[in-house]
Amino acid sequence: MSDPARIDVRPAEGYAGDITPEQAWELLAGDPSAVLVDVRTQGEWRTIGIPDTATLEKQPVFSEWVQAGGVPNPRFLEELRAAGVTDGPIVFLCRSGQRSIAAARLATASGIAPAYNVLDGFEGAPGADGVRDQRGWKVVGLPWTAGPA
Fold first, then answer.
1. Is residue 65 in some structural domain?
2. Taking every annotated instance into account, which residue ranges of this chain make up the domain Rhodanese (predicted)?
3. How far apart are CA 59 and CA 38, in angstroms?
């Protein structure tokens, strides 16, 4: 089992820091209290897939940061707490690593910490060709599965 204290965290303002998808997996595997929170939309979960943490004997928490139409989710913190996410470490994941920064900052400001952002998210930002296949959880080969139908 890896030592989560040895994960090299990139500094960040307002939350614990940025970690690579591989470091996120190490933290989740090495710390029984670590939780993965996927903040993408229901549509993204269905069409793109979701992280598969079954081998770690833990399930991700799914809570949209923004809802359909780009409207912020006013129940985000309430949903985290209802799912038992009250302290950390929490690893936030979105599609490219941007919404998860905001989620990590809000969680930290609300006392749910330490909160980390997964760099490049689930698929990474689009490359010059517009395709999201350069970086991210899914691209680096971490376990994932098709989302709910």
1. yes
2. 30-134
3. 11
